[in-house]
Amino acid sequence: EAQVTQNPRYLITVTGKKLTVTCSQNMNHEYMSWYRQDPGLGLRQIYYSMNVEVTDKGDVPEGYKVSRKEKRNFPLILESPSPNQTSLYFCATSPRGSYNYGYTFGSGTRLTVV
Amino acid sequence: DQQVKQNSPSLSVQEGRISILNCDYTNSMFDYFLWYKKYPAEGPTFLISISSIKDKNEDGRFTVFLNKSAKHLSLHIVPSQPGDSAVYFCAASRLKMNRDDKIIFGKGTRLHILP
Lengths: 114, 115
What we know:
The complex is a heterodimer.
Chain A: E1 4-7, E2 10-13, E3 19-25, E4 31-38, E5 42-51, E6 54-57, E7 65-66, E8 76-78, E9 87-94, E10 104-105, E11 109-113
Parallel strand pairs in A: 2-11
Antiparallel strand pairs in A: 1-3, 3-8, 4-5, 4-9, 5-6, 7-8, 9-10, 9-11
Chain B: E1 4-5, E2 10-14, E3 19-25, E4 32-38, E5 45-51, E6 56-59, E7 62-67, E8 72-77, E9 86-93, E10 104-105, E11 109-114
Parallel strand pairs in B: 2-11
Antiparallel strand pairs in B: 1-3, 3-8, 4-5, 4-9, 6-7, 7-8, 9-10, 9-11
């Protein structure tokens, strides 16, 4: 079954404690991206990756890091989380041909930073 | 600057009636438009799309209309069912994507289907 898997689904952590949210896909998609969803702000892109070892900043990259060492994985790293990073996070993937195929989203990770 | 705008944060519609969700965009380079549906505790799922060479695309109960001159699109759901209660995101992009192209999302409209 084609899927995008995020872990964990829920996480409560304290300010400053480094954490990683994992994203894995089994569809051989080149393009992977992280979004955060906040009330009244919709979906905002954090980082994206066109392919292995290629990553770029999205609209709200501050406080986040990513890496793309393998095609299937695209972890989101919060080196020193702060309460304003409390949000619902989604990983999204897409085959990156010349045509737009839309995104497949993971089920989300609800992060609370206290 | 919001390139994709959904001006109604929420909408309530009686079961069996038509639901109309609206979306406006500002970037005339957009030529591909998508609607995603999102239930609580789940990721958004693709619903329907339309390219700018068409002004209408139908898939079962869902129809998307595109008015290029007005830079406006709408999603019609007929008839509305309880399972349609969800948040709907409008999104816009280019059909042929270059490296820096991406899909831009609106803020979403929460649709409530009333019994």
